[in-house]
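Example record

The entry below shows one chain as it appears in the dataset: sequence first, then structure tokens.
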Amino acid sequence: MNSLDLLRGFNATVGRVAPRHVADQARRRFMTPRDTHPRDWELPWLERAERITLRFGLSALRWGSGPTVLLMHGWEGRPTQFASLIDALVQAGYGVVALDAPAHGHSPGREANIVLFARALLEAAEELPPLQGVVGHSMGGVSAMLATQLGLRTQALVTIAAPSRVLGMLRGFARFIGLPPRAGEQFIRRVGEHAGIPAEDIDVRRYRLDIPGLIVHAEDDRMVPVIEAGRIHEAWSDSQLLRLEGGGHQRVLADPRVVAAVLHLFDEVGLRASA
């Protein structure tokens, strides 16, 4: 029996008699990212980057100069996962800033959540020149959409492999670790309390998205189903949808079609703004 089976067995048994206790443990597990290390192919991009520290301690990497594009990785992700996009943006004359999310990389904290990701984007935007664009992958994408509802200003927004809402993610996690129904409900409630926004409110269908956008998703993404992209597109009138037959959840970041579509969007809104 492996550790996941043991966890599920514990949750299934104890969760029926002490749902709050099990829910609290699940909440901490859900909000505590594991350390991840850059792959060998990412190391050259770390060497070329300028490490900067923002006012409230957030760490970020910066490349190039020009109109600013802000990048936010996903859960347990890294800025250098955007290497292909960073390369193309810098060559096209953009300045790129990629955040270490709260409790990730060099940024402070032990726990993180979507609201903290979103507030990190807001804090970064306050210290940077006006943003030409924001790109978020996975949890970085859903947090970027939330950030626009909290006041983030940018000329364009790109989400890659992002879910349309949080509630589905939480229910999926609760099922994965074997929480009984009452413990699962407590878990979802506790996540909302710690994040400061109820889970049901973090849903693109409740947002007003009135900036140009690009939604990217691979058909074979096993972490976030491609149907999520369609839901985002339906709720976002000024958006383009790019669905790819392959690329999974991570490899899609390096797809040349994604890079080209992002550059096209940013160039397009830049020309529109200067006209």
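Notes for this example: The mean pLDDT is 94. The first strand starts at residue 50 and ends at 53.
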